[in-house]
Design goal:
The complex is a heterodimer of chains A (508) and B (214).
Chain A lengths: L5 H9 L1 H18 L5 E7 L18 H7 L3 E7 L5 H10 L3 H4 L17 H5 L4 E6 L2 H10 L5 E3 L21 H8 L16 H19 L17 H13 L5 E7 L37 H31 L2 H4 E6 L5 E3 L2 E3 L7 H4 L3 E4 L7 E8 L3 H8 L26 E5 L12 E7 L2 E8 L4 E8 L15 H19 L5
Parallel strand pairs in A: 1-5, 1-6, 2-10, 3-4, 3-5
Antiparallel strand pairs in A: 2-9, 6-9, 7-8, 11-12, 12-13, 13-14
Helix pairs in contact in A: 3-11, 10-11
Chain B lengths: L1 H5 L19 H13 L3 H33 L2 H32 L9 H21 L1 E2 L2 E2 L5 H25 L1 H14 L3 H20 L1
Helix pairs in contact in B: 3-4, 3-5, 3-7, 4-8, 5-6, 5-7, 6-7
The chains are: A alpha/beta (508), B mainly alpha (214).
Chain lengths: 508, 214
Amino acid sequence: MADISRRDFLKLLSITPMAILEQPLVRIFNLSANPDQQNIILLVFDTWSADHVQLYGYPRETMPNLSMFADNALVYHRHYSAGTFTVPGTASLLTGLYPWSHRAILLGGEITPEHRNHQIFNLLSPTHSTVGYAQNQYANIFLYQVGQELKTHIPIDNFDLEHGLIYDLPIFRNDQPTAFASFEDDIFQTGVGFDGSLFLGPLSRLITSREREALNNESRLSYPRGLPKASGLFRLEDIIDGAIEILKGLSQPSLVYLHFFPPHGPYRPKGKYNHRFDDGWQAVEKPVHALSQSPATFKEEEDQRRRYDQYLASWDAELSRLLDYMKASGLLDTSYVMLTSDHGELFERGEIGHNGYLIYDPIIHVPLIISRPGQKERIDIQTPTSNVDILPTIASLIGRPIPDWAEGQVLPEFGGFPDQDRDIYAMDAKTNSAHAALTRISISLTKNDHRLTYYQYPNLNYKEFELFNLEDDPDELNNLYPAQPQIAHQLQDELLQKLAEENRRFQN
Amino acid sequence: MIVERCLDRSIVKLPPQATGKPMESTKGRKIMGILRKRFPIWNEILSVFGVVVFTVHSWSLREFLFRLPSFILKYSVSEISAVFFYHITFAFLESVIFCGTLVLISGILPSGWLRSGFVYKGFLFVLVAAAAAIILQRNFNDGVLTIDISMKYLFYLGVGGGAVLLIGLFVLAQKMTRLQKLIVSVADRVSIMLYLYIPLDFIGLLVIGYRLLR
């Protein structure tokens, strides 16, 4: 110490600010240099159809804040889910596998043991801290299937106004999927039907019903149509606040999967949005499909469509707070932020929702918007992509080889080849056994501008092909199957061959 | 003999020694005396427990079998077995809670109301409660009543109507010894199912315990 002169001391003092800034600067520079050190934030909005977002050409301005976010992001215009409802759609997103491989094809179904450890969390757990939250109970089951490699599993009802899902109690932590199968909609029924518990079941329903009545009355001013409901009642603002809290406490690098229930029905926007889109605009009326179970009228479809749009607008207003937070906190500079959905929603051909057999664009065409760290321009991608591409893309982002079991490709702009000719499949097999060949199935093959859909339901004595040109006929009104046999048979052969190939494993 | 013991005490007087072993200490005797005075005898409780177990387990199994085809489509055999044992174990817990509540109520109420003739009264109570529960279950959808009635009126109707029906049945059975005997003998026969359900419950507790603690 005696050797340090006053001059040396002042020199040292002058570089003190640099020493203070050293850690953050090194972090920022390292992050820019090493993509595997950046966060990956995957925001999934359940039942979000791209066909209801103006960014994708919808005439109603349902999500203006999303459009602003997309100004600095990659917008995938032809992105499709591999499933038509939460179970297959989410499983495909998380595993990079088509439903014929992950076999989560039925309501409450699970990912087959062979692929249980093939989720994005397992892939990233060696390098990233993993955080998962799913407000949809069917998606939440997949998070339980990950096991220890999902470091932080946020309880499903964490941001809800109601709590107390039995299978989510700590006592069942080692057996959640089976406890879920036993208690939810079984021993305790929440939908139509009888409870497995004779006395406690209806008692629980009475108590829940009273609680909900009280909660709805309390929130009548903000939510005149009642509070939004997932497994319990919740407020849109609470789940956004919750998401912000999760992101605030993030350790870098992290993989964050947040699966929000909105805009899944019931469509209950805030009061301010209840009369939005009373504009007289109507979608094209489409003929009722033969597979439509209890066909809704066109008026009912349009009423529900408007409610869905209002709910989307209400959700977008809340979402803007989350997007603003990510921008203000610098997370957008250090993270890949992906916004997408597990499946869409139908308001046509007699169908409302996503519980039927039909496959048309609104039910499989979902948004995919990705913001790269520090991105300052919008890039539109017209190449067809699938939600099975998310996992390979994430693998490629962190410098991992694409797992050999993955069925998707790396997305364009992330090193993937923009392949216009690729085959994109989507399917629904909710009445087929998960342990058997797919024989009761709706399956579509989208290739170039065409989509061939095959409906095979021997139990309903229904077997039909439909072919549409998505470029010339985006409303899928003109079935070209009889008129264009060449394209029809080419796609048909390809689809049937693929189906036969995937079914082969069950032949023995 | 069981039939006679289980009839209304106002009709058939029971010898006090038939209700259990005498306690050694004075304090113990005092407690046993209070319990005997306030609560039904063990055999009666067991008979009613048999009826509750039969009703609750049968309903639970009915629901399990109703859902079995969908379980077969999506779950493995081991998962389906686990779901079965969850059903059985929960049914056991529900039976204990229901029967325990009934015994507790009989101890709180004046003895003539429920304790004397506990078997036939308990049987009728289970019958009415089960019917009410099934009607209620039928009319709920997604946490909302499908019948056009407010929760307040449903409560009045359910509790009030159920109580009136129950009191009516109690009075009827009290006046008709034959009906009492018939109910008690049915309860006695139904109790035989305890030999099937209780061992299953025991296995269920072991299986679920293992699954939760592994």
